[in-house]
């Protein structure tokens, strides 16, 4: 199948397929005499694997490691688990950071009158050279959420 068909079948854009090929995430494909790429069902399966890994937020480097482990029938599942758990820790840190940002913005918005006057604590805080105010807020469901 051609690159358009492979893109449609895998859910990965033709541009990303070319990129993945250029960085070695997928092997160089066979080309026709006229230079068109030809993809097999195995290539599409690999592209789907990559798309699913990207959907879970894995980096290109992590995906390369996962693809390598996926292809290695002698792999140890602990190696795959280690990559997944490392990624979970990164995601959890990002979640905490996003929660802190949301709480900080909510705190600033709560102190803004939101009227026709020019005074705005949100803009004042953004323009400040001081660090953002830190308030620890606790939620029974999530525990300590961070800045408010």
UniProtKB/TrEMBL annotation:
The keyword Cytoplasm is assigned to this record: yes
Domain HTH merR-type: 1-69
Taxonomic superkingdom: Bacteria
GO BP annotations, alphabetical order: positive regulation of DNA-templated transcription
Keyword Transcription regulation: yes
GO cellular component: cytoplasm
Cell compartment(s), UniProt: Cytoplasm
GO molecular function: copper ion binding; DNA binding; DNA-binding transcription factor activity
Keywords of the record: Cytoplasm, DNA-binding, Transcription, Transcription regulation
Main location: cytoplasm
A Pfam family assignment: MerR-DNA-bind
UniProt cross-references to NCBIfam families, sorted A to Z: CueR
Descriptive protein name: Transcriptional regulator
Upper lineage: Bacteria, Pseudomonadati, Pseudomonadota, Alphaproteobacteria, Hyphomicrobiales
């Amino acid at each position: 199948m051609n690159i358009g068909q492979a893109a449609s079948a895998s859910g990965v854009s033709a541009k990303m397929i070319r990129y993945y090929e250029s960085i070695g995430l997928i092997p160089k494909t066979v080309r026709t005499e006229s230079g068109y790429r030809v993809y097999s069902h195995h290539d599409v399966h690999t592209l789907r694997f990559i798309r699913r890994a990207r959907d879970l937020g894995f980096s290109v480097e992590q995906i390369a490691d996962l693809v390598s482990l996926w292809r290695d029938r002698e792999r140890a599942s602990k190696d795959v688990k280690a990559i997944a758990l490392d990624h979970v820790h990164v995601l959890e840190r990002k979640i905490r950071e996003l929660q802190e940002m949301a709480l900080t913005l909510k705190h600033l918005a709560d102190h803004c009158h939101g009227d026709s006057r020019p005074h705005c604590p949100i803009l004042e805080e953004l323009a400040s050279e001081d660090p953002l105010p830190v308030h620890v807020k606790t939620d029974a469901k999530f525990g300590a959420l961070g800045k408010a």
